[in-house]
Amino acid sequence: GGPVLNNEEYRTGTSSNALLVFKDGGRVSMKEESVFRVENYEFDEATPEDGDSSLRLIQGGLRALTGTISDANPDAYEVNTSVATIGIRGTGFDLVWAGPCVSGATNCGLIASVWLGGIFSENDAGTQDINLNQTARIPNLGQLPEFINTPPVFVIPRPDQVDIDMEELFAALTGRDAEPGLFVACYEGHCSLEDDDSVVDLGNGETGFAAYQGGERARVTRIEPFQQEDRYLRAIDTTYDTLFEIQDDRIYILTEFQCVIR
């Protein structure tokens, strides 16, 4: 597991699949040999109407369930593909990219199937609704969807049928709740707090806490002021290609090393 980051591509190999879970409750299941990108994702539980979920299917297929962002503002959720942008009405749906339609090919294009709510396809040819229990093929940017009888076959379950404890997955402390221990602020990339029994993954702008002497590890609701205002961190010049630090007679490459807190 790990945090879902903006502009990151996620890939599945042969005979493998993946489930991405978002803080607003949205989910995406990726089938085998798929490539998927989170182009932009922003969500604050206090203002879901200001959220944004812009996703892209590059290869393979996915099963998607929308969350609070689409409930508050349906226009803020979209899945982009090479032949159309898929918008939603508050929904669950499947998408499979079968490759470009060239040389008279028929088993090609984007296949879209709806199992909850409804979606719409938008491209150079216009906008077309695809409703509950309908399946359509979108051949290219210049054609509207063609309705077909057979939905795509998935061996992975619908994402709404996967049992996930959202509270545990995104559990967080407030700074005031924390006992003595170590706060870790992640400013870029992927950080993690690990012990023998658990891992807390952190993404950009997230903070974790590791209690003293093997106590709990948890995500914290915000980066604490003492970290944001750390004059030593602010004094570091990160304009160099590689930043080094010497600790205990060892040299660490700060822009490349992996730090694991135990």
Could you give a short description of this structure?
This protein has 2 domains: 8-161, Jelly Rolls (Sandwich), CATH 2.60.120.1440; 171-261, no CATH class. The strands form 4 sheets. Strands 1, 2, 3, 4, 5, 6, 7, 8, 9, 10, 11, 12 and 13 form a 13-stranded mixed β-sheet that branches. A 4-stranded mixed β-sheet has the order 14-19-18-15, with no helix packed on it. Strands 17-16-22 form a 3-stranded mixed β-sheet, with no helix packed on it. The chain is mainly beta and 262 residues long.
CA-CA gap between termini:
17 Å
Order of H and E elements: EEEEEHEEEEEEEEHEEEEEEHHEEE
What is the CATH C level class of the largest domain, in words?
Mainly Beta
- State mean pLDDT (0 to 100 scale): 84
CATH topology of the largest domain: Jelly Rolls
Major pleated sheet: 13 strands, mixed
What fraction of the residues are assigned to beta strands by DSSP? 35-45%
Q: Helical stretch count?
A: 4
Shape: elongated
Oligomer: single chain
CATH architecture of the largest domain: Sandwich
Q: What is the count of distinct domains?
A: 2
What percentage of residues falls in helices of 4 or more residues? Answer: under 10%
Rg of Cα set: 22 Å
Number of strands: 22
Q: Given the helix and strand composition, which structural class is it? A: mainly beta
Which spans of ≥5 residues are poorly predicted at pLDDT below 50? Answer: 254-259
